[in-house]
Each structure stands twice: as structure tokens, then as C-alpha cells.
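Lab meeting notes turned into a lecture example. A postdoc, R.K., suggested we walk through two folding results consecutively so the class can see how the record format repeats. The first protein's sequence and C-alpha cells come next.
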Amino acid sequence: MDFSLSEEQQLLKDSVQRFVREEYELEARRKLVASDIGYSEEHWAKMAELGWLALSLPEEYGGIGGGPVDTMVLMEELGRGLVVEPYLTSVVIGGGFLMAAGSKEQKTELLPKLAAGELKLAFAYAERQSRFDLNDVECTAEASAEGGGDSYKISGHKGVVFHAASADKIIVSARTSGGSRDADGITLFLIDNNADGLSRRDYPTVDGLRASELEMDGVAGTPLGQVGGGAALMDTVVGQAIAAICAEAVGCMDVLQETTNEYLKTRVQFGVPLSKFQVLQHRMVDMFMECEQARSMTYMVNLKVDEADKVEREKAISAAKVQIGNSGRYVGQQSVQLHGGMGMTDELHVGHYFKRLTMIDTMFGNKDHHLKRYADL
């Protein structure tokens, strides 16, 4: 099987590498993370100018019409730079929902703005009791007479909503019928970030991103997709998001492996470089193998994420998430340990990559959750 990139994909890869090299030195990233919104609006505008925000969107709505492999190429390089702009939440997830279920009017209004960098989206799905179950939804939505049959009032809590503070609109899962864990009866809604009845508590996450806790009391929302059909929609788009973050994790692991290898070649102990010690050579080989296994599974899931067979698609997604969880933990731990005491410090970028890998493992289900899911499938 030919895994080489096309000419266009290689140009994309080169442009992201150049962006990371010029804009994402560790100290510059540290300043972005400490800013009010946690990222750079200038960087976001540049990403739009370079066409990255339009990459996966349909051509008829101002996009480029790329597929999962194109997104994979982009996300891997963003992972190498620990880029903090909300590409995953706005384009991969938000854009994915709009493409999969948006009405003609919603697509015409919102997708061109998303491609141009004029719209940011967030996805609110997690609740206190839900753990990793997307269908465990107690947030409720009731039809409202104020806006006709297309308007609902949403009430409830959502937690760890990434980039909600800077989003223009938030996609919320809420229950319109059924029991709290039923797949049937979940509907997705678009709400405005400044809507009446919405309160937000913002905070930084361990990996330097921003998230929010949302409390909703009669917030006006417009359905996105079929009423009661949100569960299948979330399975599809969250699967695409998992494929994307697997690629991001591979980028993080590559940097850790390369950085650690270079450190062992330059750090001298007992008069010889650490790279001359056989036991450390074995550990570096193990790190390399974990990176390559993670890369292989990422290629596989991005080739299968649009698979028509639901069971095969979900098996590929869970298998990749398990491998990414295992590999990310091993590579991160080894990198920190082999750097010695300074590997634990905030001044060295090794710890920042490990934090991001740890967060990726927990997003949309950790390795234990997906191992059980794979077995059930």
C-alpha cells in the first residue's frame, strides 16, 4: 500500500512546518497560553489565509473539499508545534456537525464564515455523570412557542467545553425524549455564546488550552439535524475528531522521540555520551517502535473513518485510540525520565508534550474505555 503524500499534501505539510517553526517557539507559546483567550487571533487569521480552516469544508461553501487524510497531515504538524488555536473544536468538530446535519440555510450562513476565520464553534457534550458515554445526557430541551416549531429552550449543565469562552456559537447535546442513557431522543442544538440564560465558568486545562463549565436555564437553541437523531450524528463526527487527535498525538510523540534521542547524544556521563549505554539504546528503540505503531494505527483509522460499515468503522476508531493511549503514555514517560530531573520542569518543552498526550488519551474516552468498546463490538 502506498502511504506517500501527494504533492498537495506535501505542500500543506511544509507550510504548517514553516508556521510552527516561525511562530511556536516554546516561550512564544507560553505567552499565548497566558493571554486572555489562550491563543492568538493573528494566528487564527493566518490559518484562514493559508486555507487551513477551509481544508475539509465543501467547495460549494468556500472550502477546499479535502478528506480525512488531508486533515491528518495538518493535525500531525499542529501536534508537533503544540498549537493551541481551536482548529479541532471549530473546524473538525463544529464544521463536521454542520456538514453532516446542517440545513441548507445553516450551511450557507455558517460554513463560509468558518472557512474565512470569522466563526468559531465549540461542542458541549460532557456532563457530571456521563464519564465517556456520549448518550448519557440529562440536559433537556423543550419546544418553545416563541420561535415556532424550530425553537427550543435548553436547561442543564455541560462540563469541560473546550474553547467555549471564545466561540461564537456552541453545539449542545440535549434530551428531547427518552431516558437519561437512551440513544434515542438526543438532539443537537446551536446556541449563541451570549444567549440569555447561559452562564459560563472559564478555566485553563492542564495542557494549556481553555475550557468552560456551562449552566443553561431556558437558553434558546435551534436544532442541528433531525430532532432525536443526535446520537448517530455524534458517533460520526466524534469518530472523525478521534482520527484527527490521533494524528496530533503522533506529532507530539515524534517530537519527544527526536528530542530525547538528540539529548542522549549530547549529554555526557562518565566521559561518554548517554547514547552509548546499551540499556538506553534499547529504551530509545522501544520509543521509536511505539511511535511507528501509533503512526500505522493513525493511518488506518483515517482511511477507515468514512467506512460505510458502522461496526468496522467504530472498531478502527477504538483500536487506534487504544494504541495512541498506550504509545503516548510510554513515549511521554520515557522522554521525561531520560531527560532526568529537568524533564520534570516547566521550562523544558518535554513536559508540555506529555501533558497534551495525557489529555488526548482522555478525550472522547481513554484507552480502557475504548478497549472495552472494541471487545463489545
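The second example is placed directly after the first for contrast:
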Amino acid sequence: MNAMTPMDTAQDPRWKAVVARDRAADGTFYYSVKTTGVYCRPSCAARLARPENVRFHATRTAAEKAGFRPCKRCKPDQASLSAQHAEMVAKACRIITGAESVPVLADLAAQVGMSAYHFHRLFKRATGVTPRAYAAAQRETRVRSALAKGGSVTAAIFDAGYNASSRFYEKSNALLGMTPSAYKAGGADMDITFAVGESSLGAVLVAHSTKGICAIFMGDDADALILDLRRRFPRAAISHGGQGFAKSVADVVRMVDKPGLGLDLPLDVRGTAFQKRVWQALQKIPAGTTASYTDIARHIGKPKSVRAVGQACGANPLAVVIPCHRVVRGDGDLAGYRWGVERKRALLKAEASARPSSKPARRK
């Protein structure tokens, strides 16, 4: 135990964490209170001790060796509350994954030892989705997996936990991006038309499915962009759009040249549930402003998924329309960009020129 004066304690950064009851500091140190004889986590909700009675300890063992016992309120000798909650959510996810049908919320909450209300709130805060939405995603994953293995469509639907095939077919296009039979065939009966135009930033490939624009790629080499399209849709019927596609290409090129403009064309956005959440968040960033990967992770309720947010940005199939160019590092550095950092810089500069300030503003 370190000998510290009240002034030393008050100026110690750890004391600030104690005053703020900072959960992020839990596990990094512990503090003891001389007058009560207990030691606590930094986030302990007990009445704040006087600085002259407080000492800091690097570990629980050190605090106990100094003669202090664990606080009965914050229980520093047990797993942290956040760790307990994480285990509860993980257990619930395992139950949902292993269940043949969607568990009832009350039953699911009871199995992890919580009330339905608090469990629902905790689960959504931890995963970003409700238990029902998570269960639905698991069922969709099962269907995709079964169809990819070549099983019958009907068997895949019932094995995934759907009580009636009609309920699945009602949403099949939204869930799979195509009919179940088409998905089973690897999208072999999909028709995709494309064309390549020229913008101020180089070649722009625009591809259109029967539902809407499914790809916008930028680059220096038109052939490379076409090859990239074929890699993304390996079993689709891909053909050149010809003159009938010229207006769509012109609209997209106009948006690339002036990225602050909107695009009034139907979109066919395909990706995982997480990717779509990230892409939807990107579309809310106003032109002429930027947000960090951390900002986006927090916005979608997954503050620890910064790396995954970056990967979702890299997988974005719709350049400019889904404005991943507006996402930067926390220090303002442009970082990477699927279509080249210089294009990212040019897009941001073009958007900034339409605003009073000379550079993109950071969203608060």
C-alpha cells in the first residue's frame, strides 16, 4: 500500500475514475477505504470516501494483503457486472441458436435469471438487436446454409424453425435478396446489366439487377471493374446494359462528380445484417462532414466493433451512394478506401467546397 497524502490522492488520475465511477477503469486497479476496512472497484456506487482515507492497489490480492476485505456492494472479488451481463447474453445467444423455434422472451429471460424487461434491454444494448431479431437472423442463417448445401427448399425452411413455409416466402426476397430457389442455385438465374462511364475520378461501373442498382465501383481500369463485378456475382447472368442504361450511368457519374447530390434511383443493397446497419449509418452522415469508425460503432450500438465497422466500409458495394468516404480515423486521418485514398480525398474536398468552411467538419 502506497503512502499518499490527500493532495496526492486528489491529483491521482485513478481518483478521477473513482469520482466518476468509471466502469471502464474496473479491473485496472482497486481502491481501499481506511475508515471502513473494505476495498472496491472504481465504479462502486457506495458513498464517495474522503481522499485522505483512500489508497490505491494494483490487484485484489494486494488490497487483501494490506488487510482490506471486499466491498459487499460492488463485490470486487467476483466477476464484474459487465462480465456477468456478457455471460448472460452469451448464454441466451447459445439458447437461441440451439432452439428449434424462437424462444418466448419470458422463458428466455427466466433461463438466464433475469426479468423479461431487464433482459430485453440488456440483450439489445449488448448485441444491438432484440432477442427476436437475433433469433430471426439465426433462422435466416440456417436457411442460407441449408440451401447452399443443396437441400430441398421446404426442408431448409422447416429445419430452420419456420412453422409454415408461407411465412418464410413472404419475406424471402428481403432475407435472401432473391427467391429461395434462386439462392439455392447460387443466384444463377439473376440478371445483372452493367455499363461503365467516365467521371472526374476515373472509370465508374454501374450494375443493375431487377430490383435496382446493386454495384457502383470506381477505378482506373474498366476491365478490372468488370472482373470485380463478376467476382461479386459469380453465377449471375451479367451483360452490358447498352444505351438503355445510359441515363442511370449518367446519374451516378453526376453524383461522383458532385457527391453532395442525392441519387433518385432504386437500390438493391445486399450484405449481412451487420453490414447493412453500418451502411445505413453511413447514409446518415451529411455531405461535407465526416465521422470516425468509433462514431459509427457507437451509433449502431456496438462500440467495441470498430474493426468490424472498418471491414463493413471496405465491403461497401455502392461507392458514394453509401458514403464510406466520409468515415475517417479518430485523429482525422483518411485511412484506407476501397477505391483509393486519393479518390476519398477528392470526394471530401468536393463536398467541403459546397460548405462555408474549407474542410470537412467533424460530426459531434
